[in-house]
Amino acid sequence: MSDTYAPGVRHSDPLEPRLSAWEERTDLPLTALAVVFLIGYAWQVLHTSASPTVVLWQEIGLWAIWAVFAVEYVIRFTLARRKGRFIWRHLFDLIVVALPMVRQLRALRLITILKVLNRRVGTTFRGRIGVYVAGTILLVGLSASLAVLDAERHDPDANITTFGDAVWWTMTTISTVGYGDRYPVTVEGRLVAAALMIGGIALLGVVTGVIASWFVQKIAGAEESIEESIRSEVKGLRAEIAELRTELKQAGGQISRP
């Protein structure tokens, strides 16, 4: 993933000019490649009646795309001046590249596509966060459903054997409800579950923050409206008092005349 400090905004790092330039040049091509990866992986998982030859070519294609991302990570690591900082800030990339068994999670790079939607939603920070949360939930949910189905369905003790089961399990897990009617039994499936639970808690925290921000803004707007109304009324009362004083002075002057 590229360095970002706010959703949808690219920040060039002045300390890493070569790395920033490389990321800007490769961002769109790698995003397109991630789209192809997600489609290919979904086809491989869901199209179980494919011939062995088709399955072989699908696997070769997926591994080839994974290799491209691995090479791209190595190139970015080479371009980075501060290696330790780069590894820490791109820890997710390193995990996905180093653990091929969860390489499908690389599809989460599709989050960069939301930059296009982000520019159309509005300029408020809360609006951008809302788009990214919705997109992240969709991408994480799809990736997790495919991954857990791929890991579970061939195990004799599995209870997640269809895509519908996988989607239901993903929804109950990412929302932290956890009914327990569907659960992974394989090691890889449990790894996906652990990542999804952590991601679900994080997403709920973001959603809660967005809702709280909305309420605070609405309350602040109501308070400002009330204050403005009070100020307007006070101004009107002052004008009336001043007018009454003027009238009283004029009346007093007329009475004092012989």
Automatic annotation (TrEMBL):
Name where it's found.
Answer: Membrane
Task: Please give the start and end residues of each transmembrane region.
Answer: 28-48, 60-79, 129-149, 191-216
Enumerate the GO terms in the molecular function aspect.
voltage-gated potassium channel activity
Q: Where is the Potassium channel domain?
A: 150-216
**What is its membrane topology?**
Multi-pass membrane protein
Q: Which GO terms describe its biological process?
A: action potential
What keywords appear on the UniProt entry?
Answer: Coiled coil, Ion channel, Ion transport, Membrane, Transmembrane, Transmembrane helix, Transport
Q: Which residues form a coiled coil?
A: 227-254
A Pfam family annotated for this UniProt entry:
Ion_trans_2
The record's InterPro entries line, in alphabetical order, gives:
K_chnl_dom, VG_K_chnl, Volt_channel_dom_sf
Q: What is its main location?
A: membrane
Concerning SUPFAM superfamilies, the annotation shows: Voltage-gated potassium channels
> What is the protein named?
Voltage-gated potassium channel
Species: Actinokineospora alba
Q: Upper taxonomic classification of the species?
A: Bacteria, Bacillati, Actinomycetota, Actinomycetes, Pseudonocardiales
